[in-house]
Amino acid sequence: MKRNYGYRFIKVAFLSVYLVIMVFPLYWIVITSLKPQKEIFSYPVHYWPEQFTLQNYVNIFKVSKFNVYMANSLFVSISSALIVIVIAICSAYVLARFRFRGHKQIMLAFFVTQMLPGFIALAPLYMMMSNLHLLNQRISLILMYTVILIPFSTIMLRGFFQRIPANLEEAAMIDGCSQLSALIRVIIPIMMPGISSMFIFAFVQNWNELFLAVMFIDNESLKTLPVAMNSFILKFNVDWGSMSAGTVLSILPTILLFALAQRFIVEGLTQGAVKG
Fold first, then answer.
1. Contact of 87 with 146, CB cutoff 8 Å
2. Residue 150: CB partners within 8 Å, gap ≥ 6?
3. Taking a C-beta distance cutoff of 8 angstroms, is the pair 110, 154 a contact?
4. pLDDT digits (tens, 9 = 90+) for 5-61
5. Is residue 241 within 8 Å of 30, Cβ to Cβ?
6. Which residues contact 147 (CB under 8 A, 6 or more apart)?
7. Among 49, 198, 238, 239, which residue's Cβ finds the most Cβ atoms within 10 Å?
8. Which string of DSSP letters, residue by residue, matches 26-83?
């Protein structure tokens, strides 16, 4: 019994320390966003503001086009995530249900793309977008994010398809469904946890992406949130108040998304981890 109490104490202590380490950066960002400029740089450090202010939030909307940046990020992230899910469902279904010449090579190619660093494709992508006259357009980001995420999403969704018995489709087809109808009416509803988790994964990846957004978007009205956040790093200092306020607002959509789909995420990721 004493051993159990000791084990519980160690477990609670470890989890408490872990929780503090994980939550403190978020707490500090929120607190910094509510501090006046003079308190942000005051010494000794104020762990609780003496005076609360919303001026940093006002500044990011008055000085910068923060609402435009957020709208651009939402448009690019949601559009790309939806396209990724549709294409990945089709490709994963084919790879899970059918055997054809080149099947193994395609899977190998998908795995290899996950091992290569993304920047090696920067020059060809830039030339391709330039030739297609898509530089400085949101469609260029949507296309690139989609292409980058399709291999990983296909691999993960293929695992979900493999977990679902083919007998379900055959039973639906005996009842009069075509193969496409069986996929849409029987298989996809069963796979909703996996599809939801993959959509959220794709959305968060797109939402946080900075490198390609900096390289391919130069127009101020088309910039995404990560690019706008990067602009708060000035030549000789950093605008910590505006950056903190922008960070707080930028994480709200992802927190809301995770809160709404928490059940699907946990269920989906654990199911997809069984088979690859």
1. yes
2. 84, 87, 88, 91
3. yes
4. 788 888 889 999 999 999 999 999 999 999 888 888 888 888 888 888 898 898 888
5. no
6. none
7. 198
8. HHHHHHHHTS-HHHHT-SS--SS-SS---HHHHHHHHTS-HHHHHHHHHHHHHHHHHH
Q: What is the pTM of this model?
A: 0.83
Cβ 69 vs Cβ 224: under 8 Å = yes
- Quick one: 187 exposed, middle or buried, by C-beta within 10 A (0-12, 13-18, 19+)? buried
Contact between residue 88 and residue 153 where contact means Cβ atoms under 8 Å apart = yes
From CA 154, how far away is CA 87, in angstroms rounded? 8
Q: Report how far residue 195's alpha carbon sits from residue 86's, in angstroms, rounded to the nearest whole number.
A: 10
The owner of tokens 């607190």 is 31
